[in-house]
Design goal:
14 strands, Porin, single chain, mainly beta, 246 residues, twelve-stranded antiparallel β-barrel, two-stranded antiparallel sheet
Length: 246
C-alpha cells in the first residue's frame, strides 16, 4: 500500500513543477470500437478517450488519460509523470530514452464496497526507441491490486508504407505472480497464466491532425465471456482520433 501511495504522491509532486517550465501542452481525443488493455477487454463496447500532456523543454513531462471502462467499474483515469531524452549514438543513430511512473485509477470499482480494495495500481516503466522500433519494460509491485508483482515487456515496430499510411505491430509478454492472480478471474478454467498479447494495426494520417487506425488484437489467454472481458478473439478494431497542440 505504501508503495502505491508513494508513487501517486510522486506524480502529483512532479506535475505542478512541470507546468512552470517552458514546454508544449498537447492533447488528443479518440473514439474506438473497443478498449483493450494488453489484449484484455475493458469496455466490451465502443470507448471514448482523451489525454492531456505537458512536455517541458528539459525532458520532464506529466499528464493524464481517461476512458470509459465498463468492465472495471465504468471509468478509468491514468496519471503519469516521467523524463525522456534523445541522444545520438556515434553521431548517426538517434536513440530516445524514457522512464517514469503511472497510476491506474478506477473510480467506480469497489469489490468489497470500500475504496481500499479496488483495482487501482501503479507501474514504473522504462523504454528506448531507435528508428521505427521500440522496447518498453513495465513493473508493478501489486498488479491490478491482486496481491503480487507483474512485469510487461512490450515491443513495437511502426513502419511507413506510404506518405500517410503506416503499419504498426505491437507485442507484449506479461509475466508474474500478480498477473496470474489477476488472470485467474478471467479465464475459462479459472487458472491464472502468464500470456502474450498482440496487435496489428494500420494507421492512416488525415489533414488537420486526424488519424484513423484499423486492425486486429488478441491474446494467448482462453478468456471467459461470462466474466466481463468478452472471450471472443481476435478483436477487430477501428479508431479515429485527433491530436491537438495548444
Amino acid at each position: 500500500m505504501w508503495i502505491r501511495n508513494g508513487c501517486v504522491a510522486l506524480i502529483f509532486f512532479i506535475a505542478p513543477g512541470v507546468y512552470a517550465l517552458d514546454g508544449q501542452l498537447s492533447g488528443n481525443l479518440k473514439a474506438s470500437s473497443d478498449y483493450l488493455f494488453r489484449g484484455i477487454d475493458r469496455t466490451n463496447s465502443p470507448a471514448a478517450q482523451g489525454e492531456l500532456d505537458y512536455a517541458a523543454s528539459n525532458g520532464i513531462y506529466a499528464g493524464a488519460w481517461a476512458s470509459n471502462a465498463r468492465a472495471a467499474g465504468g471509468s478509468e483515469v491514468d496519471a503519469y509523470a516521467g523524463f525522456g531524452r534523445t541522444i545520438t549514438v556515434r553521431d548517426i543513430f538517434p536513440v530516445h530514452f524514457d522512464g517514469g511512473v503511472i497510476t491506474y485509477l478506477f473510480p467506480g470499482d469497489e469489490r468489497d464496497g470500500s475504496a481500499r480494495h479496488n483495482l487501482d495500481f501503479v507501474e514504473t516503466y522504462a523504454s528506448f526507441r531507435l528508428g521505427p522500433a521500440s522496447l518498453k519494460a513495465s513493473f508493478s509491485p501489486d498488479y491490478e491490486n491482486a496481491g503480487g508483482v507483474a512485469t510487461a515487456l512490450t515491443g513495437r515496430l511502426r513502419w511507413p508504407l506510404l506518405e500517410s499510411l503506416a503499419i504498426r505491430l505491437d507485442g507484449t509478454l506479461n509475466l508474474g505472480p500478480g498477473l496470474k492472480q489477476y488472470t485467474a478471474r478471467l479465464t475459462q478454467d479459472s487458472r491464472g497464466r502468464d500470456y502474450f498479447n498482440y496487435a496489428l494495426m494500420f494507421d492512416y494520417s488525415l489533414p488537420d491532425d486526424f488519424r484513423i487506425s484499423a486492425g486486429i488484437a488478441g491474446t494467448t489467454l482462453d478468456l471467459a465471456n461470462s466474466r466481463g472481458r468478452d472471450g471472443d478473439q481476435p478483436k477487430y478494431l477501428i479508431e479515429i482520433g485527433r491530436h491537438f497542440d495548444f
